[in-house]
Design a protein that fits this description.
Strand content: under 5%
Helix content: 55-70%
Number of helices: 14
InterPro entries: MPAB
Organism: Limimaricola variabilis
Radius of gyration: 19 Å
Largest sheet: none
Shape: globular
Protein name: ER-bound oxygenase mpaB/mpaB'/Rubber oxygenase catalytic domain-containing protein
Length: 289
């Protein structure tokens, strides 16, 4: 069976950007991109206006696993099925409906989109089997430009350099510590550690996870900085993993986020019931039953 990611060089980074992004996410770099997008969450938590709104919904405090699963599923539906597929449109519709329920600044929305573009590229530069090629970076950027347009985000940059410039300026101006930052980062870190370790071992896993975060992010979220020695060892181990991956066969079957079994959705999920507000009529009726 052919390696699906080998098709990428023959595809257009503009016309076929969705297909390339899907191949990158489900075949070429599936585990790495998922970890990078987890780090992207923490970058949005470093902005008080974003973290304060998220804490006010109380979803992270009361149902952190559901909030994480719903976010991951709503992002993955358009990626894995196509932005203009029925499921892709339904997921983007849910995202837009939820965002429309709150007053969210355009710059905050654009910054979150920037993290989706930039963090996977940066992660693969540091820890991936190989970095994204220029062709893949262009397609990855174009996919998110298309997604952002469907979400009604204003001022979307025209290229990767524009995303990098916007994010750098935004972080200089808006990264600062706030209690809501620390609360969200702490809740999410414990949730993610729980995916891999029993709670009694979190104290060992926590410094390792923090070693993957940069100093401005740690300062803004109030997370403790690991030692320089530990940071070097973690990065060395991740680069060793990358060398090992280069020797292994490439993935031939997709790794689909939307197909994963989740404790909160033992019988599967409906896109209309993901997220917070506004509720569907059916969901509201069940809640009141």
């Amino acid at each position: 069976m052919a390696v699906p990611e080998n098709r990428i060089p023959q595809l257009s980074s503009e016309a076929d950007c969705e297909e390339i992004a899907r191949l990158l996410t489900t075949y070429a770099f599936s585990w790495d991109i998922e970890r990078a997008l987890e780090l992207a969450l923490f970058r949005s938590y470093a902005v008080p206006s974003i973290s304060d709104l998220l804490m006010k919904t109380r979803e992270f405090a009361e149902r952190p696993r559901k909030r994480y699963d719903d976010t991951e599923l709503l992002i993955s539906e358009p990626m894995e099925n196509g932005i203009d597929s029925d499921r892709g449109r339904a997921a983007i519709g849910r995202i837009n409906a939820m965002h429309g329920h709150y007053r969210i600044a355009d710059d905050d929305m654009l910054y979150v989109l920037c993290t989706f573009v930039l963090e996977p590229i940066r992660w693969l530069d540091r820890f991936g089997r190989q970095p994204m090629t220029a062709h893949e970076r262009a397609a990855w950027t174009n996919y998110h430009r298309r997604l952002g347009a469907r979400m009604g985000i204003a001022g979307i940059p025209a290229d990767l350099a524009g995303f990098e410039a916007f994010a750098a300026a935004f972080e200089r101006d808006r990264f600062r510590f706030a209690p809501s930052n620390a609360a969200l980062a702490g809740i999410t870190l414990e949730l993610l550690l729980g995916f891999y370790l029993p709670r009694r071992l979190h104290r060992f896993g926590r410094p390792v996870a923090l070693a993957l975060m940069d100093t401005p992010l740690l300062l803004a979220t109030g997370l403790p900085a690991p030692s320089d020695r530990l940071r070097r060892w973690v990065h060395l181990a991740m680069r060793g993993r990358a060398r090992l991956l280069r020797c292994l066969p490439r993935r031939r079957w997709p790794r689909l986020v939307t197909a994963r079994r989740r404790p909160g959705y033992p019988g599967g999920y409906r896109i209309s019931e993901l997220g917070t507000w506004p509720q569907t009529k059916e969901r509201a009726e069940r809640a009141g039953a």
